[in-house]
Amino acid sequence: MNRFVEEVRRTPGGANVLNCLLCGSCTACCPVNEIDDGYNPRKIMRMILLDMEDDVLLSDEIWKCNQCHACVSHCPQDVRFADIVRALRDLAIERGYRDKDLLQKVKELDEELKRKRLEAVQAELEKKKPVSGKTAEGNL
Ligand code: SF4
Ligand code: SF4
Questions:
Q1: CA of 33 relative to ligand 2 center, distance in Å
Q2: pTM, two decimal places
């Protein structure tokens, strides 16, 4: 087995890396790929399986994932690509490819964006009350 694949497999989140058949379902359902076709989970998987440690761990791409987990529910092989990304980020920090604080910064940014979206949606809902005459059935 290739050395880098084995290291990914042993890192928390990377256990199922060898299940991948490179089918591309993760890329097809990825919302980040929808707006940035340079971000391609299948391509990252292929690079891991080809043992391209430097290219993978130095890549900006592994930081673009927003951890929505759509790829996890669409993967026919239970690879759990979102978890593989977390393993790759941990390896990139551990091996000095990136500064330690990047991981925390990206987590904070993701949390802030989720909170901002919720606040913006709530503000819109306040402005746009339900159409008159429509009420909830209340039968849950
Ligand atoms: S991670 Fe899953 S969905 Fe993505 S290419 Fe591999 S097998 Fe297909
Ligand atoms: S978890 Fe990341 S790679 Fe998977 S679908 Fe969401 S953004 Fe794409």
A1: 8
A2: 0.89
